[in-house]
Amino acid sequence: xxxxxxxxxxxxxxxxxxxxxxxxxxxSSDESVEKIVVYAQKRAQDIAxxxxxxxxxxxxxxxELQLKDTTQISSLVPNFKITTNAGEGTPPxxxxxxxxxxxxxxxxxxxxxxxxxxxxxxxxxxxxxxxxDIQHLEVLRGxxxxxxxxNTTGGAVLIHSTMPGDEFGxxxxxxxxxxxxxxxxxxxxxxxxxxxxxxxxxxxDNYDYSTNNLFPGAPDGGLKQLNFRWITTADFDDVxxxxxxxxxxxxxxxxxxxxxxxxxxxxxxxxxxxxxxSPACVNVYGHSIDSDNYWDASADTxxxxxxxxxxxxxxxVEWDITDDIMFTSISGYRDLDxxxxxxxxxxxxxxxxxxxxxxxxxxQEFTVSxxxxxxxxxxxxxxxxxxxxxxxxxxxxxxLREAPPEVAANAIxxxxxxxxxxxxxxxxxxxxxxxxxxxxxxxGLRYTDESTEWSSLADFDVVGAFIPGAWDxxxxxxxxxxxxxxxxxxxxNTDLSVxxxxxxxxxxxxxxxxxxxxxxxxANSEYRPEKLDAYEIGSRWSFLDKKARLNASAFYxxxxxxxxxxxxxxGSPFGVLRNAGDSTIYGLETEFSYSPTQAWxxxxxxxxxxxxxxxxxxxxxxxxxETRLPFTSKWNIGGRAQWESEIGxxxxxxxxxxxxxxxxxxxxxxxxxxxxxxxxxWNGRVSxxxxxxxxxxxxxxNLFDKEYAExxxxxxxxLRAITELKGEKRQIGVDVTYKF
Length: 740
Prior knowledge:
Layout: H1 15-20, H2 23-27, E1 37-38, E2 45-46, E3 54-58, H3 59-64, E4 80-83, E5 93-96, E6 99-100, E7 112-116, E8 119-120, E9 134-141, E10 155-161, E11 169-177, E12 181-191, E13 196-208, E14 212-213, E15 222-236, E16 239-253, E17 258-261, E18 263-264, E19 281-282, E20 296-297, E21 305-320, E22 325-343, E23 351-371, E24 375-396, H4 405-408, E25 412-434, E26 439-462, E27 465-493, E28 496-507, E29 510-511, H5 519-523, E30 526-527, E31 530-543, E32 548-560, E33 563-569, E34 573-579, E35 583-594, E36 600-612, E37 617-619, E38 622-624, E39 635-647, E40 650-661, E41 664-665, E42 675-676, E43 679-690, E44 694-701, E45 709-715, H6 716-719, E46 721-726, E47 731-739
Parallel strand pairs: 7-10, 14-20
Antiparallel strand pairs: 1-2, 3-9, 4-5, 5-6, 7-8, 9-10, 11-12, 11-47, 12-13, 13-15, 15-16, 16-21, 17-46, 18-19, 21-22, 22-23, 23-24, 24-25, 25-26, 26-27, 27-28, 28-31, 29-30, 31-32, 32-35, 33-34, 35-36, 36-39, 37-38, 39-40, 40-43, 41-42, 43-44, 44-47, 45-46
């Protein structure tokens, strides 16, 4: 039978069935049922023993679906959306159940965190992680207020690398695809002896974006990525040591944007949203594209490059003090140096900029756990220090510098030198207690004390003068908060369990180091914490002789002081992070998996969020109330059909999958120009694996060449345009793998 691909959570609303169950059923065991192990509570557990909605994606799925990095996993998880806000290589936006980062700059802290082998990634700069040689990853939906690091109001993504094996062996994979895409990946086990083992893994990708840049001499854009990882484990009976070192090096040119003018060139009116992108619609400078091909753009990006390099290391120590007590220490360090140049106006030189980031992070966690037949208790101390040094710039109206003085005075380039030091200290404790053979209670509490010290220095370059220190500001944001969870698991019988959960999430305040044009904006860019109370009921059910799993969950969120990204005006338009009022989010999730025969596996997941309104916000003439949260579709539906059969001396496999998202908005104003209509992306793969370990595959993404946007940003105030980044068009590729 095909291995179970995804792990599901949920609710089965059948009170009549519940009434027929009894505690004796719950206590019975069935050794034939395969236990699905997850690490959602920092230890290996059967999925039925946790009250957390979690989806697991296997390493095989990652490779077969050609999931290059964490920005591509959302199609397998209900109510999970990911967008690349300013183009690949910049901080992406992760959104789970309407909770996500709506900001666009490199100082942002996402409410959804990445944890690589137990070490937190830190700010949104580190959300994009290449997925190579991965054992599996887990996506936890909802606030993780007790056990996990910093700012996990919306959820967490746990990445588990493949650990070293006992014997020499590994694999090599190489492939080519459209958009000049070449790739290679491999890993090898290098055991020193029975106690010390190592694993070396690497990944290489080199590709162009599918946007066709019509601007003379400008590239279509693309990236070259090289990633390297070395893991060593040592087992000394009562003490186990795991060290990891990773290096990533990315370089290339940025994706061309499309400046979608909203003014009709000849009819003296605004273009309709349906007309955006047509040659008849121009921006404030009269620019449009003389093409009806959706994938065409015109952007002066000859000097717009991307370059980033990161180094990471971690050490994990596990000490079995007694048979019942274990001490764990996880130390992590990460350094990221990134430069990204962008273009916002298309063919002109009117709005361009750079994002430079030097990001260093140190984290340390100590935990002590105790376990007996009825209880598991864990308590710990957590520390994080992250320094974000921004060297950004924005160049406005450079093309006007040669104009008459009264016009040239509008041209300005601002250089930003911002430094943010985020510090977080937390004490946490959680206990799982088995009340009876039917009920298990979980209670957890976390106290967090956080601070952000910030400084902001700006230099102005205007026609005829360079003005250093146009402003030199500093400040500190401090807050502390209690978070945690309380849940009850009820095992109805061996096939059905139900959980009831309350969780409290918290995301700290901070400073928004965005592109300010006045000292007043820079001085007033602090924001307060946000809080989330989450109520959930869910279950896990297997039936049809264990061939089917049907799970669902219902959740209700009470969201307070949510942090939103808004466009304001202080003499010129600017974007800033602010706290809105209270809001409400609720919805449902169901996930279904069925293996009717040994050859077939069918998976279907569905997310439904009918209510996701933003809290009321007022700033001068700007009023936002009762609008839908950005990046939040009402419907998210995904599915896969997989088939395999022995043919000749090997195994033939085929699969077809889709991901559907109903309409959503890229901003909180429900601007019809920033609306993305509903769309579905289809992907597929066919492979043949020989018994010798050699396999061949052909795969496709966006098989029906669906046109969709990765980003639509409201640039109407400055450019009379919508800035758009296009999604990726159809791509077909082939690969070959050898396992040894």
